[in-house]
Design goal:
The chain is of the alpha/beta class. The chain has a single domain, classed as Spore Coat Polysaccharide Biosynthesis Protein SpsA, Chain A (Alpha-Beta Complex), CATH 3.90.550.10. The protein contains ten helices and nine strands. Strands 1, 2, 3, 4, 5, 6, 7, 8 and 9 form a nine-stranded mixed sheet that branches. This is Glycosyl transferase family 2.
Length: 243
């Protein structure tokens, strides 16, 4: 696949503060075969004015009600026509004007899930390195650093039961079923705002279910290891709280 189409999807609601930087990082890419889709959740600020400013460089945009970020992301996957789909947050930016050209050159296997790294701006660190069945339950793969092939994103959608961490469930389930299709690229894909809702809040349903999800998808050895790590973390946090 010499010049695969890359669908980049941004979901936003009331993002006028940051959205223009995200859009610029996409429309200024050196790679031509990009389908840029923006889904707005009925913003009440100046978000729509920003989108309209760039609509000549946006393949498709809509402003309509949704049931949360993952519902909007699922709508984006339904609309996408690319060979691979990628999500860029409204307050994130692509790492460089050539990064899509760089990664597209590596997309040689049509059913592979390609992923790299993202820079966490608040934490001032690179996230997350190469995934394995042992570490993906603990640290996920940032959806600002992963490209899903059409064979995946047209068949599998985000579980709306998980309001803040459906992407973690999505990746754990995929890794359990398609581990050999995950291809790591040691490249910085994006700069990520780790002050967003999912970074600062806990998805209680995810917290309740994730150990079982790991057991079911990655096996009993990994599930037991993850359970132990969770218990150890909880114990350490309780000690800190008792001081």
């Amino acid at each position: 696949m010499q010049y695969p189409k890359i669908s980049i999807i941004t979901v936003v609601r009331n993002g006028e503060k940051d959205l223009e930087n995200a859009i610029k990082s996409v429309v200024n890419q050196s790679y031509d075969n990009i389908e840029y889709i923006i889904l707005d959740g009925l913003s009440t600020d100046g978000t729509l004015d920003i989108i309209r400013k760039y609509e000549g460089q946006i393949a498709l945009w809509k402003s309509e009600a949704d049931r949360g970020i993952y519902d909007a992301m699922n709508k984006g996957l339904d609309l996408a026509t690319g060979d691979w789909a990628y999500f860029l947050g409204c307050d994130d930016v692509l790492a460089s004007p050539t990064i899509i050209e760089e990664v597209a050159a590596e997309f040689t296997l049509a059913d592979s899930i390609y992923y790299g790294n993202t820079y966490l701006k608040k934490s001032n660190r690179i996230y997350t390195g190469k995934a394995s069945k042992w570490n993906i339950p603990l640290r996920n793969i940032s959806h600002q650093a992963i490209f899903y092939p059409r064979s995946v994103y047209k068949q599998k959608k985000y579980n709306l039961d998980y309001k803040l961490a459906a992407d973690h469930v999505y990746n754990v389930e995929l890794y359990g079923r398609l581990r050999e299709h995950f291809v790591y690229m040691p490249k910085l894909i994006s700069l990520y705002n780790d002050l967003g809702m999912s970074s600062l809040n806990v998805d209680q349903r995810h917290k309740k279910d994730i150990v079982g999800i790991v057991f079911n998808n990655l096996g009993s050895a990994v599930g037991s290891y993850y359970w132990f790590r969770v218990k150890l973390s909880n114990f350490k946090n309780s000690l800190k709280g008792g001081k």
